[in-house]
Each structure stands twice: as structure tokens, then as C-alpha cells.
Write a structure and sequence with these properties.
By secondary structure, the protein is mainly α. The chain has 12 helices and 3 strands. It has 2 domains: 152 residues, Ribonuclease III domain (Ribonuclease iii, N-terminal Endonuclease Domain, Chain A); 71 residues, Double Stranded RNA Binding Domain, CATH 3.30.160. The protein is 62% helix and 10% strand. It has a 3-stranded antiparallel beta sheet. Helix 4 packs antiparallel against helix 5.
Length: 234
């Protein structure tokens, strides 16, 4: 059972907002855990709600803070901030993964650090905050979570067009052009796509999404982040 040994008090401090224990527990409960424990409530409805709250908060913030940007640039920035890669980055920054309740299969395959699971759980927590604390507190919570992403302009630019950014960085470093391998799983009505990006024989990173394009973009941004970190450490 994941998350039961991790302090909920530590998580509450990291979140910086009060959420009822019952709602928070549901937000942290993945469907794999729910199915293994008698079909208890899981976080997918909260995730659905949180996705909407996230989108609205980010849209309004970008509109107000960027009066000179046109609709196309605003849309690109919003897409990068609400992407699975961005939300997974947020989740890792507050160590959310160790609190998520996962089934045995997901635990064995590293589900606590899967970008898709981390991102979905962030959205579920946003939904829980909205239900418990209201719209204003939920909006403030969202903006506090995503603000660090806005403070790194270089990374933010890569998030808007990760495949091009990765290709340009690979060229600058004298590496082979990125090659993507994509697989899918699940039923036709609910497919998940998983992409692995390689530079030559070196598989750099992977990413998941609900479409081939989304998975490739997630993998590209993760690979860009890895390469960028390696260049700044030298």
C-alpha cells in the first residue's frame, strides 16, 4: 500500500492549503488501488474537476499578465503549463509520488514516478481543494503550483515546442537527431500512448499521453530537460 507511511502532515505543508483528510485521501487514490481494495472511491472524478479548474486559472492568469500576446501565443503557453510533463514536474517538486495510493502492479512498475499518474493526481488534488476550500483558494493554489515553471524562461520556451527545442539542442551538442518509438495500450476508447526518444543508440527519455503527439512531446521535453541539466552541470 503506497502512501500510508508517508506523513500527510508533510504533504499538507508542501501543498500549503487545508484539505479535508477524506477528500485528500480520495485525491491520492489511484484506480488500481481502489480495485484491489473493494472498489473504494478513487480520484478520477476529482481529476476531471481539477482539470477544469486548472485550465481556467491558468487561462485567466496568462490573459491578465500578458496583454501583448495574441491568442495563438496564449494558447501555446497554456498548453505547456497544463501538460502532463509540466504537472509531473510540479508533483515531483512537492514529492507527491510517495503519497499516492497505488495497486501492486503499478507499484512494481514505478507508478509513483510515472508522469501520467503524477499529473492526474495533481489535478485530483486541485479538484479536492476546490470542493473543500472554494474557487478563490483553488485558483490561488493552482497559481502557486505553476509559478516556478514561469520563472525559468528557457525551460518554458522548450515546453511550448519541445520537439523542435530538443532537435536544436541535439544539433548544438553534436548528437544524432531524435528518433521516437511509440507504443499504445488499453482499449480503443481509452488508449494510452508511450513514447521513447533516442539520440542514436542512446534512449534519453520517455513520456506518456492520450495521443501519439502528446506522448512524443512529453518524451521530448523530458529529454530536453535531461540534456539541459547535463550541460549546465559542466
Amino acid at each position: 500500500m503506497s502512501g500510508t507511511n508517508a506523513s500527510r502532515a508533510d504533504l499538507a505543508r508542501a501543498l500549503g492549503v487545508d484539505v479535508s483528510p477524506a477528500l485528500l485521501e480520495q485525491a491520492l487514490t489511484h484506480r488500481s488501488f481502489a480495485y484491489e481494495n473493494g472498489g473504494i472511491p478513487h480520484n478520477e472524478r476529482l481529476e476531471f474537476l481539477g482539470d477544469s479548474i486548472l485550465g481556467q486559472a491558468v487561462t485567466v492568469m496568462l490573459y491578465r499578465e500578458n496583454p501583448d500576446l495574441d491568442e495563438g501565443d496564449l494558447a501555446k503557453r497554456r498548453a505547456s503549463l497544463v501538460s502532463s510533463v509540466a504537472l509531473a514536474e510540479v508533483a515531483r517538486s512537492i514529492e507527491l509520488g510517495k503519497h499516492i495510493r497505488l495497486g501492486r502492479g503499478e507499484l512494481l512498475t514505478g507508478g509513483n514516478d510515472k508522469s501520467s499518474i503524477l499529473a492526474d493526481t495533481v489535478e485530483a488534488v486541485i479538484g479536492a481543494v476546490y470542493l473543500d476550500a472554494g474557487a478563490d483558494d483553488a485558483t490561488a493554489f493552482v497559481l502557486r503550483l505553476i509559478r516556478p515553471l514561469l520563472e525559468n524562461p528557457e525551460r518554458f520556451g522548450a515546453a511550448m515546442d519541445p520537439k523542435t527545442s530538443l532537435q536544436e539542442m541535439a544539433a548544438r551538442l553534436g548528437r544524432d537527431a531524435p528518433v521516437y518509438t511509440v507504443t499504445d495500450s488499453g482499449p480503443d476508447h481509452s488508449k494510452r500512448f508511450h513514447a521513447v526518444v533516442a539520440l542514436g543508440d542512446d534512449a534519453i527519455a520517455s513520456g506518456s499521453g492520450t495521443s501519439k503527439k502528446q506522448a512524443e512531446m512529453a518524451a521530448a521535453l523530458e529529454a530536453w530537460t535531461v540534456l539541459h541539466a547535463s550541460t549546465t552541470q559542466k
